[in-house]
Design goal:
It comes from Paenibacillus helianthi. By secondary structure, this protein is α/β, with parallel strands linked by helices. It contains 13 helices and twelve strands. It has two domains: about 240 residues, Rossmann fold (3-Layer(aba) Sandwich); about 90 residues, CobW-like, C-terminal domain (Hypothetical Protein Yjia, Chain: A,domain 2), CATH 3.30.1220. The strands form two sheets. The chain has a seven-stranded parallel beta sheet with strand order 3-2-4-1-5-6-7, sandwiched between helices. The protein is globular and about 70 Å long. The termini are far apart. The structure holds guanosine-5'-triphosphate (GTP). The site of guanosine-5'-triphosphate has 22 residues, from helix 1, strand 9 and strand 10. The site of guanosine-5'-triphosphate (GTP) has 22 residues, from helix 1, strand 9 and strand 10.
Amino acid sequence: MKIPVIILSGFLGSGKTTLLLTLLKASKARGLNPGVVMNELGKKDVDGYILQEHGGTIVEKLLDGCVCCSRKEELPKTLGLLLSRRPDVIFIELTGVADPEEIAKSLLEPSLSERLKLHYSITVLDAENVLEYGSRFSADKQLVRTLRRQLSSADLIIVNRSDLVEPETLWRIEKMASRHNAESEIVFTHYSEINLTPLLAGIIPREQHTSGPQRGRSDMNGTTLKRMNSLHGGQGATAVQEPESAQQASYSQVAAVTLTFPPEAASGIRMEQLEGFFREWGDSLVRAKGHVRLAGQDGVQLVQYAGNRCTWEFSRYPGQPYLVFIGLHLDEKQLTDRWSALFQQP
Ligand SMILES: Nc1nc2c(ncn2[C@@H]2O[C@H](COP(=O)(O)OP(=O)(O)OP(=O)(O)O)[C@@H](O)[C@H]2O)c(=O)[nH]1
């Protein structure tokens, strides 16, 4: 019996991990044993720790690069490790700059297609920012192409963070998304909350598996099933040799930089000081996240900077505080110099 795989894609900070947490909760409530492949651009595993805090999930991590291009060869081994722990369903959360179509193709490699099948490919959009991506990232043609492929390859498009925009913007996003993908279902969400019943339909615990036909995607959307089957070539499909252009990186100017706190910052940083530091980088900083100690407060905070907005929440992270910065044209030396200077101010 093949284990179903659900791919979660979408740009940085759009709400993929938020959706994953909901999916994990719903899976466990159905008696399923879910497994996760968590891919992060940075060397530090912020989202993996968030999952760990929610407990009871098998997670394999792929850090410091994108599983659709620079770390593509590691995917089969990572999935193999996950499968050895006998999950009933696998969620692959991609980095925000990954091309989900490349992952769908990887699942066709004979070593994987024998044991796994693509159940759903979901793309999450950040309603507040998605309409600006084309102009904002025009200098990175590969990234613009990847963001288009995130849209065009999705079985389901979730327009998330919809609480932050006017209805008129949602209408424009729907038009734009349907232009790129006429077949996908489009839903509008707040904190990635959707009806998960059709999505998880047909996924059952291993011990209930029989050799009979499985229900699932066809119950949800017949046209979607037809379209993804064309990528997967129906019965007995094998991976197709990719043209050279398809093997290039999914972005060219995005970089992740990890910053740690110097000894002078042992007593913590002020909230407004850190938020000011994020804003200093303007449009070049797309996403930041990490665990930090705030001056005058006990414990550690998880800070998330996404779509130019900052959120803070209590964290139990036990290690040394750090921050991951992800952006376009981020100059690592300039960033680390400014970071050090921040703690030398009187
Ligand atoms: N206002 C608002 N914030 C949201 C919503 N959904 C998620 N967020 C917040 O947006 C931030 C980013 O959400 P994540 O789920 O981590 O986004 P992501 O796509 O996994 O981010 P990366 O994996 O780093 O690319 C977090 O602080 C979330 O709490 C929403 O619908 N509305």
